[in-house]
Amino acid sequence: MKAGFVALVGRPNVGKSTLLNHLVGQKISITSRRPQTTRHRICGIKTTEEGQIVFVDTPGIHASQKRAMNRYLNRAAVSALLDVDLIIWIIDRPNWLREDDLVLERIKSAGVPVVLVINKVDRLEDKAVLLPFLEEAAARHSFADLVPVSALKGVNLDVLERKIIALLPEGEPIFPEDQITDKPERFFAAEVIREKLLRSLSQEVPHALTVEIEQFKIEGGLTRINAVIWVEREGQKAIIIGHGGEVLKKVGERARHELEHLLDSKVYLELWVKVKKGWSDDERALHSLGYVE
Ligand SMILES: Nc1nc2c(ncn2[C@@H]2O[C@H](COP(=O)(O)OP(=O)(O)O)[C@@H](O)[C@H]2O)c(=O)[nH]1
Ligand SMILES: [Mg+2]
């Protein structure tokens, strides 16, 4: 049997969480078109006859270190590289940006094998650009492998999975066979609400919001969830609530629907929007809102 930890790293928005969900075959990590959708280190566990792969999803590694939240995200991403057996480095089509050099630097210092995954090939008009790019990439680092995939359409993921298994050390499963994540249900409740918010809002509001679960109570076939959506300013609160409460109502309905499916229970969901000035640039506020390594 093979077993080990595999970190999924890369710039924001390249498709790390989408890849995790498709490899595990379940939605573990929320996704959206916005950078910083993933704010926590989340494990997704896949157990097969050959072994167990523990994927570690991470926030994207990015250059800006200015705000406390950005520093937290970078720390969480970089610390996930410690103690893994393999790194999957994901890039968005054959585009090598300056920030990818930064990622490569971090990856090199981890000292474990790296598989370079070129994602979103479904959006590649000219597939002929792949081959020269793979050669160029191979010259920058001695990768254990280079694999083009489409995480969203499920292209070449079986090949990727076989290569990952082959690169893992021998070992007994780390988690019980039926476990698929390391996070508790109330964590997912907050994440699902945040995903629906990210997907409903434009402008700069997504970066300014976080969701805190105040109550998560199972009463027979009903789960009672009370959540607070924290924002930084009154204006953002007004945007989230929307005209006549329209936006918040839609977010609540979508979140409740998905949570009922996820928890296999009826869900009673209550959402409140509150203002905590400057929480995302305040180390203590971040800590109390669950941004703890
Ligand atoms: N067309 C296409 N879109 C993708 C693919 N993988 C991810 N995406 C999209 O890219 C966006 C960012 O994905 P996400 O997984 O949240 O990226 P992350 O920030 O790296 O975790 C989402 O809108 C995904 O639907 C892919 O293979 N093809
Ligand atoms: Mg993500």
Automatic annotation (TrEMBL):
Q: Which UniProt keywords apply?
A: Cell membrane, Cytoplasm, GTP-binding, Membrane, Nucleotide-binding, Ribosome biogenesis, RNA-binding, rRNA-binding
UniProt-recorded name of the protein: GTPase Era
Q: Where does GTP bind?
A: 10-17, 57-61, 119-122
Domain KH type-2 per the UniProt entry, residue ranges: 193-277
UniProt region (G1), positions on chain: 10-17
Q: Does the keyword Cytoplasm apply?
A: yes
Q: Where is this region: G2?
A: 36-40
State if Glycoprotein is listed as a keyword: no
Intracellular or extracellular location(s): Cytoplasm; Cell membrane
Give one GO molecular function term: ribosomal small subunit binding
* Limits of the Era-type G domain: 2-170
The entry's cellular-component GO terms read:
cytosol; plasma membrane
User: Which Gene Ontology biological process is one annotated for this entry?
Assistant: ribosomal small subunit assembly
Its membrane topology, per UniProt?
A: Peripheral membrane protein
Subunit details for this protein?
Monomer.
**Which parts of the sequence are annotated with region: G3?**
57-60
Q: Where is this region: G5?
A: 149-151
Lineage, opening ranks: Bacteria, Pseudomonadati, Pseudomonadota, Gammaproteobacteria, Methylococcales
Write out the similarity annotation: Belongs to the TRAFAC class TrmE-Era-EngA-EngB-Septin-like GTPase superfamily. Era GTPase family.
Give me the ranges of the annotated region G4: 119-122
